[in-house]
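ingest -> validate -> predict -> emit
validate: passed (alphabet ok, no gaps, 174 aa)
predict: started
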Amino acid sequence: LEGTPQQPLGIPGTTGIENISATTDVNDPIHSCVGQLGSKTIWFRVRSPFTGLASIQGTGFRLDQFGNPGFSMTVYETDGLTLGPELGCGFNASNAPGFVTLGVPMTEGRDYIVNISGLSANNRGGFMMIAVTRGDPTVDFAPRTLDFGTVEPGQSVERRLLFRNAGNVRVSAP
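emit:
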């Protein structure tokens, strides 16, 4: 677990770090949701103060242009020395707006590792963030309205909202 912060993030908690200069280790685990090793890998340690379900949300922002750099987020149990089993994995494609949200069962006093990695070897990186809260994950839609502009009598206008759950649990809108 070299490179993992020794000070764990509490719950609730939020943290972030720039990963432009982060590296890739060939010994890192393969992310099940994308079937490959990540790049520009960063690690976060989370300590659970409760037993139950936690919601872990990750996002990324490119620093050289609008959008996100494309990333996967994977959560593992740990004994402090080695990675345990993967508890969840999700990804967000490059330049796609949004977040990855995972529901992770946690045990009071245990540590967990959150890994955020770029999706490709040529990933430029950016500023990566995670937020950890207690309870079931929910989704917040933005924008909350669809603008149809002016629709004249007899005309039709269609707008679509595409929602893809790339996480590991069912999500619901508030």
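The chain has a mean pLDDT of 76.
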